[in-house]
Amino acid sequence: MKIVLLGPPGAGKGTQAAMLVTAFNIPQISTGDMLRAAVQDQSPMGIKAKESMDSGALVSDDVVVGIVRERLQQDDCERGFILDGFPRTQPQADALKHVLAGLDKELDSVISLQVETEALVERLTGRRTCADCGKGYHLRYDPPASDGSCLSCGGQLIQRDDDVEETIRNRMQVYHQQTAPLEDYYTKEGLLVSVDGMGEINSVRDQISTALQAV
Length: 215
Ligand code: ADP
Ligand code: ADP
Ligand code: ZN
Description:
With 215 residues, the chain is of the alpha/beta class. It has one domain (2-26, 79-213): 3-Layer(aba) Sandwich (Rossmann fold), CATH 3.40.50. The chain is built from nine helices and eight strands. Strands 2-3-1-4-8 form a five-stranded parallel β-sheet, with helices on both faces. A three-stranded antiparallel β-sheet has the order 6-5-7. Strand 5 (127-130) and strand 6 (136-138) form a beta hairpin. The N and C termini lie close together (9 Å). The structure holds adenosine-5'-diphosphate (2 copies) and zinc ion. Zinc ion binds at residues 130, 132-133, 135, 150, 152-153, 155.
């Protein structure tokens, strides 16, 4: 199964991608996670990307496409993958098509999660991530252990630097300007499936699995 998860910041892409990893036993490819790892390592690419990420702008297409191209060539992507947060611009979508064609592959489905703006802001301000294993939480909707630690590994939870109100508003704007047009792009390709992302996490998961059964 070769899937793209599309949706604004906070729509639930990472949460649903983690569930699809378990269901299909295919890797999650999150460009946000890979960029944050590069920032943490202080690699030249990470140092350059950090400025854009902190302001809520997109990192350049060249950099992101390069990361994804390399990742898709790895053996564990042979049976499929879940792209989470990529593509985010039309040039990235064109590049993805080109890279996949070179590997004799094509996408099966693009799942677009529909969530209202106010719910997105609430989700992002309450989002926390385990510093050790990366598992995602929400203080209210997907809470950690009662002492605030990670349920999987006992690690400490952290809040992302860009999950603060002003940056969140910028990211929403960037989404509407640069990423939302991909809904039309993938509708024309016959790949887009819109899923109501406003329900509970498990209900969204069920809708996605129903949609994927039709693929
Ligand atoms: P979100 O949870 O808001 O969807 P991500 O973790 O996917 O955020 O991305 C965080 C930041 O990393 C983005 O605001 C952007 O700066 C950068 N980024 C991630 N994916 C891409 C991409 N495909 N193209 C450009 N920038 C990206
Ligand atoms: P994205 O990867 O699209 O930015 P996440 O999967 O990180 O979004 O979800 C953003 C926040 O919202 C997280 O704190 C997550 O626990 C929470 N969340 C995800 N899906 C739902 C949902 N269906 N209802 C309520 N909260 C959710
Ligand atoms: Zn953990």
